[in-house]
Amino acid sequence: MVDRASAFDDREVVELLKTRYVPVAPSLTELIKSKDPAGDFFRKVVGQRAEPKHTKQGYYIASPDGTLVVGWMYPRPDDGTMKKNLAEALKTYRPPKQIDRIDASKVDRQCNPVPPDGAAVIEVCSKVLDAKWGPSPAKRVDMIRDAVGRDRLWILRAEREALLRGELADSLLERVIRFHLVDNTRGVPRRWKQEEMKAVELKLAKGTLQGRVQLDGFDVQLYGRIEAKGGALSRFDVVARGVHDPKKTEVGEVPLAPYTVAIAFALSESGEPARVPPLFSWDLPDYLRTAALRVTELRRK
Fold first, then answer.
1. Is 207 within a domain?
2. What local confidence, expressed as pLDDT, does residue 270 receive?
3. Count H helices, E strands: the chain?
4. Looking at the structure, do residues 124 and 255 belong to the same domain, yes or no?
5. What is the band of 238 on the pLDDT scale with cuts at 50, 70, 90?
6. Residues 124 and 58 in one domain
7. What pLDDT, on the 0 to 100 scale, is given for residue 2?
8. Residue 155 and residue 32: Cα distance in Å, rounded?
9. Are 139 and 14 in the same domain?
10. What CA dihedral angle connects 13, 94, 272 and 190, to 10 degrees?
11. pLDDT surpassing 70 at residue 1
12. Is 22 in the same domain as 156?
């Protein structure tokens, strides 16, 4: 996030990427292990970069045949290296004479999941609003602390139909709580365990959602508007806000004391944004769980 925030804050960089390159931003963790032609191509490209050895994160400029032109990760944040490499690559680049087409019909859906048939896609953004931090050792740390986390929520067809009837399905509520009421602003957090869900007091009435969720380390108030129009979900505007225990934050840059996190949900626009899978879809059976729900127990109390 530090790299993107710094490198793409330059209009010349953005213009070069829009007009002279085909930019791709994949999930490295999934694509690098994907057992399909796209995964093979990606591994071919990243395998040509020698340094750093501990990770394949970073940037790559490659030709369509998979030949690496230049790859780098540091410095972080970007100091102009992105613009320099983009410009220099254009000066020396010679297109390959033959390019083998990637077979797009073969896709490893475990690493590249798509929304289930009839599902709705919700954009999720998170932000730390109030926190006590220790001394900042570097500019990149300040940028990390101020970052916005992004994810997507999948609402299954049956859950979407329940919302149209004014009902909040237990499976949808549990998915929101366990996988999306997380602080992902500074890295990849862990999902909440079912046993960490302590109380659920939420009501959906006449399109208004409000109530409270208590987790072992995060006490959250929720409020929102959920509406339908023409038999379709037309609005899903929900905000969650609460105090997070820093001891439950298993990422870098942890605040020194309990801190406030806000998480916003809204319908996704169609197109590429809606195709990006949820963070925790790597464990799809757990993410799409509809039985043996902790929420069902809690809502009965």
1. yes
2. 84
3. 11, 9
4. yes
5. very high
6. no
7. 67
8. 27
9. no
10. -80
11. no
12. no
Residue 83 half-sphere exposure toward CB, CA atoms < 13 A: 13
Tokens at 178, concatenated: 């366990």
Closest CA relative to residue 124, chosen from 275, 242, 233, 278: 278
Instruction: Give the confidence band of 252 by pLDDT, cuts at 50, 70, 90.
Output: confident
DSSP 155: E
Which residues, 6 or more positions from 37, have their beta carbon under 8 angstroms from its beta carbon?
A: 102, 103, 104, 106
Separation CA 301–CA 297 (nearest Å)? 7
For residues 183 and 262, membership in a common domain is answered with yes
Number of domains into which the chain is organized: 2
Q: Are residues 245 and 147 part of one domain?
A: yes
- The arithmetic mean of pLDDT across residues 177-181, rounded, is 98
Same domain, 147 and 283: yes
For 52: left if phi > 0, alpha if psi spans -120 to 50, otherwise beta; the answer is beta
For the beta carbon of residue 192, count every other beta carbon within 10 angstroms: 22
| Averaged pLDDT, 5-15 | 89
Residue span of the structural domain in which 76 resides: 2-92
